[in-house]
Amino acid sequence: MRKTLTKKIIKGKEYFYLVFRKNGVLKSQYLGGASSMKYKKYLFKLTAESGSYGIDKARHKNFSKGAPIVYVENGFLVDEYKNGTKEYLNSKLQVVKVVAKHD
Question: So where are the chain's domains?
Answer without folding.
Answer: 4-48, 53-99
